[in-house]
């Protein structure tokens, strides 16, 4: 059951141009966001929730006329839950370049009157944080009580402490890493190649052709989904079970795991934008706060003023606990405040989305100590 009930999205429009790290310039842009709870008089109780690759602003609750449309992190947000809406004011936002209402590749390019398509600039984690700071200004929030997120969302929380060290008091970096490994970049590139080589991609201007590169997006999601799960979880959930009537030695769906992946691929390809997927994965690849510090993460994080909670999951092989401990070791090296929890979970990288009692207890305990 949803913790916050009926919610509705809002749109913030920004007319001041946003210069992007990659050299592009957005003359104006929209951000779609939702809020849960009440901003207190001191405006000291706001928490920004940053989403992962395929996420969006709808973090909790359900939308009007669609009670099944529950927010992607609903299990952690609401009265009495770790992100307690009786104490905190929670903000969820769809990132720039997204496909759930914020300005992105499918939006109209004011210079041409057509969808941006391939002309929409690549955006980075730093750009997202800059845009989110505009949203904080729009909401009258000088400093967040906390910025948090899982996976790519955790990277944004980390970047917040570096881009705006005086505007975030706590950072909750969950199932994340200080930068992608070569293996992770390789996974992303295979996913992108599936999209880029789809005959319906049309160089990213598929909107003008009235088609979508569904096949490529489907394959990209199937590949990504494999990396989000753990081997143990897949073995337990699907094993080598064959579907009824299988055994023809053909290439249609025969094993249950094949059926599951194709379902997830079709579901995702039906709602997500291919150009957004390309840009989200590039933002992941490029994120590396230590790059300008001779690969010295401790030096890179030295300017952060926030206190940190870093959480990792035992079966997460995409962003393994060792990657989280790199962040912890750098902060400890600097004498900065950090708490670390490594949670036993069977759910792989997706563990941060699950209702794991130990994990939620860690977040709940940490947030209860946040002074407002």
List keywords for this structure.
single chain, about 375 residues, alpha/beta, Rossmann fold, Rna Polymerase Sigma Factor, Chain: A, 2 domains, 8-stranded mixed beta sheet, 3-stranded mixed beta sheet, 10 helices, about 35% helix, globular
| Nearest-integer average pLDDT | 96
Low confidence ranges: none
Number of discrete helical segments: 10
Total separate domains:
2
Report the structural category: alpha/beta
Q: Biggest sheet, strands in spatial order?
A: 2-5-9-6-10-11-12-13
CATH level-1 class of the largest domain: Alpha Beta
How is the CATH topology of the largest domain named? Rossmann fold
End-to-end separation: 28 Å
The residue fraction in helices comes out at: 25-40%
Strand content: 15-25%
Largest sheet: 8 strands, mixed
- Gross morphology is globular
| Order of secondary-structure elements | EEEEEEEEEHEHEHHHHHHEHEH
Specify Rg, calculated over alpha carbons: 20 Å
CATH superfamily of the largest domain: Alpha/Beta hydrolase fold, catalytic domain
CATH architecture of the largest domain: 3-Layer(aba) Sandwich
- Total beta strand runs: 13
GO cellular component, one term: cytoplasm
Protein name: Homoserine O-succinyltransferase
Pfam families: Abhydrolase_1
GO biological process, one term: methionine biosynthetic process
Q: Any overview of this molecule?
A:
With 372 residues, the chain is of the alpha/beta class. It has 2 domains: 6-179 and 288-368, Alpha/Beta hydrolase fold, catalytic domain (Rossmann fold); 184-282, Orthogonal Bundle (Rna Polymerase Sigma Factor, Chain: A), CATH 1.10.1740. It has helices at residues 125-139, 152-163, 182-196, 214-228, 231-237, 256-269, 274-286, 297-301, 321-334, 357-368, and strands spanning 6-7, 10-14, 18-19, 25-26, 29-36, 46-50, 62-63, 66-70, 89-93, 146-150, 170-174, 307-313, 338-343. The strands form 3 sheets. It has an 8-stranded mixed beta sheet, sandwiched between helices. Strands 1-7-8 form a 3-stranded mixed beta sheet, with no helix packed on it. Strands 3-4 form a two-stranded antiparallel sheet. Strand 7 and strand 8 (66-70) form a beta hairpin. Helix 3 packs antiparallel against helix 7. It is globular, with a radius of gyration of 20 Å. 47% of the residues are buried.
């Amino acid at each position: 059951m949803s913790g916050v009930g009926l919610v509705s999205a809002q749109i913030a429009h920004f007319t001041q141009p946003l210069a992007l790290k990659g050299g592009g310039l957005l003359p104006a842009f929209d951000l779609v966001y939702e809020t849960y709870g009440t901003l207190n008089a001191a405006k000291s109780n706001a928490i920004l929730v940053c989403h992962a690759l395929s996420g969006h602003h709808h973090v909790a609750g359900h939308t009007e006329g669609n009670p099944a449309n529950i927010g992607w992190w609903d299990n952690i947000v609401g009265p009495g839950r770790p992100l307690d809406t009786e104490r905190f004011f929670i903000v969820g936002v769809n990132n720039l370049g997204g496909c759930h209402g914020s300005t992105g590749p499918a939006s109209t390019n004011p210079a041409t009157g057509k969808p941006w398509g391939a002309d929409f600039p690549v955006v980075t984690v730093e750009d997202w944080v800059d845009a989110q700071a505009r949203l904080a200004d729009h909401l009258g929030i000088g400093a967040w009580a906390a910025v948090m997120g899982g996976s790519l969302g955790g990277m944004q929380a980390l970047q917040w402490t570096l881009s705006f060290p005086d505007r975030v008091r706590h950072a909750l970096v969950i199932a994340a890493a200080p930068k992608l490994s070569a293996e992770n970049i390789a996974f992303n590139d295979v996913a992108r190649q599936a999209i880029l080589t789809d005959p319906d991609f049309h160089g990213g201007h598929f909107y003008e052709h009235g088609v979508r590169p569904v096949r490529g997006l489907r394959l990209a999601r199937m590949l990504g989904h494999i990396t989000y799960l753990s081997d143990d979880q897949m073995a337990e959930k699907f094993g080598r079970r064959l579907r009824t009537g299988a055994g023809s030695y053909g290439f249609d769906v025969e094993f249950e795991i094949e059926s599951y992946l194709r379902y997830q691929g079709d579901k995702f390809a039906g709602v997500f934008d291919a150009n957004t997927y390309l840009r989200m994965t590039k933002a992941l690849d490029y994120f590396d706060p230590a790059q300008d510090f001779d690969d010295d993460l401790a030096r890179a994080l030295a300017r952060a003023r926030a206190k940190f909670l870093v959480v990792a999951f035992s079966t997460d092989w995409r962003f393994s606990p060792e990657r989280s401990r790199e962040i912890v070791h750098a902060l400890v090296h600097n004498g900065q405040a950090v708490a670390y929890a490594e949670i036993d979970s069977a759910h792989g990288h997706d563990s941060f989305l699950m209702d794991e009692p130990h994990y939620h207890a860690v977040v709940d305990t940490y947030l209860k100590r946040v002074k407002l």
